[in-house]
């Protein structure tokens, strides 16, 4: 059964909010390129306009493509993007110390951005087709395995920020797909513990400046073997107790011990893979004045810019932190800092409101979707948008570590902008076809 509708029916709230955010982004990409003397130092805003216009065209094209078309090719999209990610590691162009771009001359794309959409479609189909099996451990772990592949490949570039995005996408899609909360909590705790164990030795080293038991346990292979051996023995005894008595307490002991046994080795591997500057970004998150002229500089200057904006800001093109070039990566990672300095709390609230409109309308589309696949696709896109927003805004005000994630729809960059707009096009495709069965 199908209800009559216009082929041009779109969610006008999402369209208007998106266009306004793009306009705001272009304004502050332009502002980021203006020096204190009023000279235009770069023409990034022209490229941003080109990407925004072409991205809007892509968004509208995707809107009018039935989302079920993507269902058929979800697996193909995913494995193609995995091939591109592998190719990037070998043939990609190095920018700022990371091999993230693939292309020729000055033209190129970041496959890691489009991998987010490919993963969303793949997981939406995977969990959507397994409604009766999703609560099984095997089904959950297989989905986690597929989500970890692009994350691992992106981490090897290395790109810590982007590699983290795939986890919330997986967790949100699995949650709305019907996965057990126990499984979701385990993965969340596992990643959190691994991150903590990765940072602690560096934090102790730079703050306390002396070796401690935490450093020895987490960095010395010999001591780590003893620790893991003891935990393994305790896990074996607990497992026997669970098998013989069926007492719930043994289950939770196994739960906790397995988390420790898995997260400590992963933290050791992470310290080998991550660069020193990436680790220091996590360290200075706790106290940026540990390295105020180095890794902590970004956070300190960003907080200064945001705080100096006050209620109404200093006025467009009148910011000092940006125009005196105190803010690094100010057109990408720290574009919100420029906005908050020049437009103040009112401008920041406008950005919050526009993002809230997009998220709330997308959630409405999700709950009104007619099938599990489309509902899970929208859930994944919302997870991507919200995670980018929270991490980017959080790092500019010192509430999150600096990970290099852009503020979608505002930050300078073609690949991230197109990814966001294509994703919103998929949301509106679900909205447009919501009356079809």
Automatic annotation (TrEMBL):
Cell compartment(s), UniProt: Membrane
Domain of life: Bacteria
Segments traversing the membrane: 12-33, 45-65, 77-96, 102-127, 139-157, 163-179, 184-203, 223-243, 250-270, 343-364, 376-399, 405-431
Membrane topology: Multi-pass membrane protein
Principal cellular location given in the protein's record: membrane
Gene Ontology process terms (BP): cell division; regulation of cell shape
GO cellular component: cell division site; plasma membrane
A GO molecular-function descriptor: lipid-linked peptidoglycan transporter activity
UniProtKB keywords: Cell shape, Membrane, Transmembrane, Transmembrane helix
Xref: PANTHER family: CELL CYCLE PROTEIN, PEPTIDOGLYCAN GLYCOSYLTRANSFERASE MRDB
Protein name: Rod shape-determining protein RodA
